Amino acid sequence: MVKKIASNLTFWVLFAITAGILLGHFSPATGVAMQPLGKYFIDVIKLFINPIILVTIVTGICGMGDLKKVGKVGGKALIYFEVVTTVALIIGLGVGFLIEPGAGVNTSTVNKADISKYSGAPISISWLQFFKDNITIQVLLFAILTGIVLSKLPQKEAILKKVYWASKYLFRSLHWVMKLAPIGAFGGMAYTIGKYGVATLLPLGKLMACVYVTMALFIFLILGAVMRYYKISMWKFLGYIKNELLIVLGTSSSEAALPSLMEKLEHMGCHKSVVGLVVPAGYSFNLDGTSIYLSMAIIFLAQVFDVSLNMEQILTIIGILMVTSKGAAGVTGSGFIILASTLTATKVIPIEGLALLLGVDRFMSEARAITNFIGNGVATIFIANNEKMFDKARMYKAFGIHKTAE
């Protein structure tokens, strides 16, 4: 029993998160000093992301054979991203209007942090700059081109053999690094609680609760419906990726578990090429949690300042967020840049309201990251099933279900 617990990553990540919360609460200065543990863990994991994308896509495209299918998968993925994130935006707006988390908020009780670096934010994000700054998208495009060229070469098999060898040791190294996940989760959580403190949550507790409940409903109702369409249990899937979800929770970063998610999706039956195309693209374009948060934050600020939004303004908000929530992916402070640009465009909500959100934003980043993470997993499963590139027998085995493929 003791030996089983000692080797259980889930147990140790949960233990580390709890320890981080306690340290941050009772010794804030020490908790803040733990930040490098979380930061360096994420930095090390980031080193694996682009090489894994490269080998996954190259081997996947070469194994797919039909290059037209590659384009078809990419096109379907982008359409799926747009539809689902738009639904997320609308849900965020709807719940914000229904529950009214901003009603009665006393702005004098919240620390007015400096928002000068956001107040001059541009109304739109430069797509050229986005592609220049987003290394993951660059690697994705390079990997697709490499896979296409390699699939045409006569010596393809000899080269692929070396790529498979590199992939094997790449994932083996990743498994060793993931053993350090409890340390990363401890550092991330201790820093968050130590720096911001649980007391920060009280003035905006209603908004916090609203965001978490809405994201939970989105996961189980909307994403759950997508999974049920192909007769796949959302609960089983969440149980299958529980370690990754806890790492995302502890570090507030979906990047921390991205390589591991790609491996698990392939292991549960998604074709390698679908995983390689959808997951990296989804990291930049399929931000369900971010979409919910942004739309809800704008309605919250409107309610705080007693601003009534008409239908034209609401549609303007949706239109702006549909573009900027994707174009700003990976940009530091992008959440506040998007909010600032939207407030500037609507010209009815004071931009100073951003100061209200700075104190609690870190506590809501976990919900955003987890929802984005799950959303990308579901997107990959959906596209793989839709393209008949999903092996249910492997899924049953991965989920521990004794059943044959249908």
Give structural notes.
By secondary structure, this protein is mostly helical. The protein has one domain: Proton glutamate symport protein, CATH 1.10.3860. The chain is built from 20 helices and no strands. Helix 5 packs parallel to helix 16 and helix 13 runs antiparallel to helix 19 (354-386). The model has no long low-confidence stretch (mean pLDDT 82).
Number of helices: 20
Mean pLDDT: 82
CATH superfamily: Sodium:dicarboxylate symporter
Major sheet? none
- Radius of gyration of CA atoms, rounded to a whole number: 22 Å
Helix/strand layout:
Elements: H1 2-6, H2 9-26, H3 28-33, H4 35-64, H5 67-99, H6 116-119, H7 127-133, H8 135-152, H9 156-178, H10 181-196, H11 205-229, H12 234-240, H13 242-251, H14 258-267, H15 272-285, H16 288-304, H17 311-327, H18 334-346, H19 354-386, H20 392-399
Give keywords.
single chain; 406 residues; mainly alpha; Proton glutamate symport protein; globular
Provide a quick synopsis of the model:
This protein has helices spanning 2-6, 9-26, 28-33, 35-64, 67-99, 116-119, 127-133, 135-152, 156-178, 181-196, 205-229, 234-240, 242-251, 258-267, 272-285, 288-304, 311-327, 334-346, 354-386, 392-399. With 406 residues, it is mainly α. The mean pLDDT is 82.
